[in-house]
Amino acid sequence: QVHLVESGGGLVQAGGSLRLSCAASGRSFSSYAMGWFRQAPGKEREFVAAITWSSGRTYYADSVKGRFTISRDNAKNTLYLQMNSLKPEDTADYSCAADSYLRRAIVPRTEADFGSWGQGTQVTVSS
Predict the structure, then answer these.
(1) What is the mean pLDDT of residues 66-89?
(2) I need a labelling partner for 107 at 20 to 30 A (CA). Which of 17, 35, 56, 60 fits?
(3) Is residue 24 within 8 Å of residue 62, measured between CB atoms?
(4) Is the separation of the CB atoms in 3 and 23 below 8 Å?
(5) Residue range 64-89: average pLDDT?
(6) Phi/psi at 94 (nearest 5 deg)?
(7) Residue 54 CB neighbour total at 10 angstroms
(8) pLDDT tens digits, 6-33
(9) CA atoms of 109 and 45, how far apart (whole Å)
(10) Cα(22)–Cα(8) distance, rounded to whole angstroms?
(11) pLDDT digits (tens, 9 = 90+) for 88-121
(12) What is d(CA 110, CA 107) in angstroms, rounded to the nearest whole number?
């Protein structure tokens, strides 16, 4: 099990940037693929981005492709989400998650793929 804590959320104007961090504790962070999800008020949680355990592959939702970048620093047990050109529709609670399985070659993309979740950090983008 991996314990995850997000930080870096806040209020930003449209067009601005934020960088979210997800600090992991527990065993084998570097062996898990990681992902970011978000949930806006009144909507279902949706996939944002994911990265394999080796950082060799990434995958993005179409809505954030070209604006968001997922990365990880395995030496620091930390996952990041750099968000640029933010839009009001990016407003949501953002959560990081760890894959349910070690060292999978695929990029997990659904909620069912992930077994450990953080509590979330709120991102609000004003117009």
Answers:
(1) 97
(2) 17
(3) no
(4) no
(5) 97
(6) -105, 130
(7) 13
(8) 999 999 999 999 999 999 997 789 999 9
(9) 12
(10) 9
(11) 999 999 999 999 999 988 899 999 999 999 999 9
(12) 10
Percentage of the chain with pLDDT > 90?
A: 87
Q: What is the mean pLDDT of the chain?
A: 95
Q: What CA–CA distance (Å, rounded) separates 4 from 63?
A: 25
Q: 103: alpha, beta or left, given left = phi > 0 and alpha = psi -120 to 50?
A: left
Structure tokens, 26 = 């527990």
Contacts of 92 (CB under 8 A, 6+ apart): 38, 39, 40, 43, 122, 123
